[in-house]
Amino acid sequence: MTGTDETTEPTPDxxxxxxxxxxxxxxVRAVQLEQALDQLCADGELTDAxxxxxxxxxxxxVERLLAVPRSSLRDAGRTDDADTVETAIELFG
Length: 93
Prior knowledge:
With 93 residues, this protein is an all-alpha fold.
């Protein structure tokens, strides 16, 4: 035996958790964006510039909302905080 505890479970993959979080954010963004564009188009056609503004807004909102949780997950990975990473995987999986 090498002195390591072989019964210890491996630390969950932080990047997997971040990827799941990003995927969930992208899914929510796509659904909400489609609903918003449908509502706006019901009142008349949107120009390409208007559509682009709405799409960019949705991207920025998701990016800013997920920035802190992503950072916290990466911090948890650096400190071997498996509970936090596992919780994120459960929440966003």
